[in-house]
Amino acid sequence: MTITVENLDFTYGHTPILRSISLPAFQPGEVYAVVGPNGAGKSTLLRCIAGLHRHSGTITLGNGNGAGQQGSVLYLPQDPPPATTLTVFENVLLAYQQRAGFRVERATVDLVSDVLEQVGLTEFADHRMAHLSGGQRQLVSLAQAIVRRPSVLLLDEPTSSLDLHNQLKMLELVRQYAEEQPAVVITTIHDLTHAARFADHVVVLHDGTVHTVGTPREVITEDMLREVYRVNARIHFSDDDTLALAATSAYVTEV
Ligand SMILES: Nc1ncnc2c1ncn2[C@@H]1O[C@H](COP(=O)(O)OP(=O)(O)OP(=O)(O)O)[C@@H](O)[C@H]1O
Question: Which UniProt keywords are given for this protein, alphabetically ordered (predicted)?
């Protein structure tokens, strides 16, 4: 399923939040990072694509008609799932079956166990959600998403509560998921080095508008960092696309 966004406008009350957003079509098998400063409108854009906000302009899913395809769009909010008394296994099972009080097939148990292994939560399968850390619950959230095999996966700051090891693991899993499904994956992310490493395309939002769209090399530049983030920085891309970024100073512009 492809996604197109054309002339998207969104306001909270009378305050414009997103203005005239048009983007190249999002393609299955590709990972898109949406970056930009706090308040730029990244989460709002994701929520519009997820169908959670009433907006003007056009967001098209699929080949133009979008009919019957809404169900395979999955949006993962920034907050991890609640600290309930359900176990990790039960949480992921419920996400898959979408109802309680059912007979569970052996194949379903195996599927849930596989997904828990992929995200590294096997040893926590019987732990109650209330006994997990915020980062562990964020991994449960990913497991709940992957088990449902959506065609479009929208992730809002999926690494915000994770340590460096789990950040890399989460992003590797997401990349692998996009390729294998194949799915459109769109993630908001603050760490530009992660965006450079894991995303095929980067969308830079600034004050509710699109500043630039392109490959990480095209988009993550010293000029962009100055204009959008108000940061002086030195950047360097290695041959393997690894980005080294050293911010030398932040500056404040007159308002
Ligand atoms: N419920 C709301 N009512 C009014 N304004 C809101 C509401 N939620 C967000 N906003 C405003 O919309 C703008 C965009 O918010 P959004 O959460 O999309 O930004 P963001 O780029 O995801 O920021 P961050 O990086 O801090 O998460 C901000 O100026 C914010 O104050």
Answer: ATP-binding, Nucleotide-binding
